[in-house]
Amino acid sequence: MLKRIAAAVIGLGAVGGIGFLAYAWYPAIAPIPRPAASSFSADAISRGELVANGGYCAECHTRVDGKPGPELAGDFKMATPFGDIFSSNITPDEEWGIGNWSLAAFKRAMNKGIARDGSQLYPAFPFDHFTKVSDQDVSDLYAYLMTRPAVHMKPRDNTVPFPINIRLTGQGFWKLLFFTPGRYQNDPKHDAQWNRGAYLAEGNEHCGACHTPRNLLGAEKMSNVYDGAVIDGWIAPPLNEHNPTPVVWTEDELFQYLRFGVAPLHGSAAGPMSPVPHRFLSKIPEEDVHAIAHYYADVDKAAQRSAGDQAAISRAMQMSGRDLTGPQPLDEDARLYQGACGACHYNSGPNPVLGRPELALNNALWLDEPNNLYQVMLHGITAEEGQDHISMPSFYSGLSDHDMARIAAYLRRTRTTLPPWTDLEKKAASARATLEAPPVNASH
After folding, report:
1. Residue 236: enclosing H or E segment and its boundaries?
2. 355: which residues sit within 8 A by CB, 6+ positions away?
3. Residue 439 to residues 152, 375, 420: CA-CA distances in angstroms?
4. Is the Cβ–Cβ distance between 398 and 443 less than 8 Å?
5. C-alpha to C-alpha distance for 370 and 441, rounded to whole angstroms
6. 60: Cβ–Cβ under 8 A, 6 or more apart, which residues?
7. Cα–Cα distance between 11 and 199 in angstroms, integer?
8. What φ, ψ does residue 112 adopt, rounded to 5°?
9. How far is the CA of 394 from the CAs of 234, 340, 379, 398, 408, in angstroms?
10. Residue 277 · residue 56 · CB < 8 Å
11. What whole-number distance in Å separates Cα of residue 338 and Cα of residue 325?
């Protein structure tokens, strides 16, 4: 009897193993000679450039650490809990790039996360979002990439350890648990603009890749979609109704932020988010940015939640204006803030002045941790990123960890109604340690 049970278990295991291999294994697609640029229409290339900008291809496929690399040649370092992963070369180089990939091979990579040689791609490449992109957009993107300059450059080797680096089993199992391939399907309960925004946001723009927390295996938590996550030491804030700012992200605020990098009532895009509006979404059709804003205004229930915005703005102005009017309290933290920050972050009227970001309304002060406040202090904001080309210098050298902690504590207690942050000096030191080198404009 025991022998029969053991034999049955072994048999089931063998069948399961064969079934898993049938699911995870893909054949190679034969290489092709590099297509001539003239084989693609000008319209396809033009449309493909819009898709590339919408998906921020150059951002993750261009090396920025150490010696910056050529655009789209890969070698961008992504530090993950599973090791460092370096992005692939997606120029039409035939040895290290995708020059010998057919359109079918390229579509399979986008739709299923499978390389031309049949190997499983790591989900650092967001194929779980790109699977929703239409065949037409993928075909146009292929035309655009295949007409870029070929760069003969090999990316660095990944440092993913054994056994995770066995892609057939490791990534195949990951996909079995977390990946559902398929193109975006319109939701009939919503209008065309909402569906266009959802298609872009959930697919090519892959917003959830940064704004949705991940589980221990690196997959997005579908039970917490758009609840926010930590990215490269910054907090990508929630894009839903859990966003803690006192003024709601309305459709207009979202559009201004995504198109121009500045939302009048929320501040400027900085850190990993900075290139999204400034380098990419500013180059796609304006109606598409409106569609994305329309979609996220619905996701965050802006229409239902914005009734209290004017009262929140009035409270914020009272919080800000009290610092420089009337008798000054004997508060050393307030004096430190006024000396370092007050000249630019002071508003005394009924509404914030464009060019004077009102910190009482800013996401950075209302998040659970001071990450973004510290990162902005350390990095600064360039003239290309700031409101009306107004820059903020880096205080990497100008403020100590103790100074940063004092300013953070002061702002949290005077500009919000939330409990104080903890371990502020330790967290300031940790934020400083993440910078490989001081910013070039660090104040002295």
Report:
1. strand 234-236
2. 387, 388, 390
3. 31, 11, 29
4. yes
5. 22
6. 76, 78, 87
7. 44
8. -130, -5
9. 16, 11, 5, 8, 16
10. no
11. 12
What is the DSSP code (8-state) at residue 328? P
Helical H segments across 159-200, by residue range:
167-178, 192-199
Neighbouring CB atoms inside 10 A of 232's CB total 13
Contact 394, 379 (CB under 8 A): yes
b/e for 5-41, b at 16 or more Cβ within 10 A?
eeeeeeeeeeeeeeeeeeebebeebeeeebbeeeebe
CB-CB contact of 84 with 77 (8 Å)? yes
pLDDT given at position 8:
47
Q: What is the pLDDT of residues 228-272, one digit of tens each?
A: 999 999 999 999 999 999 999 999 999 999 999 989 888 889 899
pTM, to two decimals:
0.91
Q: Is the per-residue pLDDT at 6 higher than 60?
A: no
Q: What is the pLDDT of residues 380-419, one digit of tens each?
A: 888 777 676 778 889 999 999 999 999 999 999 999 999 9
DSSP 24-36: H--PPPPP-PPPP
Angle (CA) 81 368 365, round 5°: 120
Q: In 21-141, where do the E strands start and end?
A: 77-80, 83-86
Instruction: Find tokens 């037409």 and name the residue.
Output: 136
Tokens coding 48: 């493909």
Number of H helices, E strands in the chain: 19, 6
CA distance 196 to 186: 8
Residue type (1 letter), 432: R
Q: Please give the biggest Cα pair distance in the chain.
A: 90
Here the tokens at position 402 are 């103790």
**Spatial CB neighbours of 173, under 8 Å, sequence gap ≥ 6:** 20, 24
Ranges of H-type helices in 70-201: 103-112, 127-130, 135-146, 167-178, 192-199
Contact between 132 and 203 under an 8 Å Cβ cutoff? The reply is yes
- Estimate the share of the chain in helix, then strand, then coil, as percent rounded to the nearest 5: 50, 5, 45
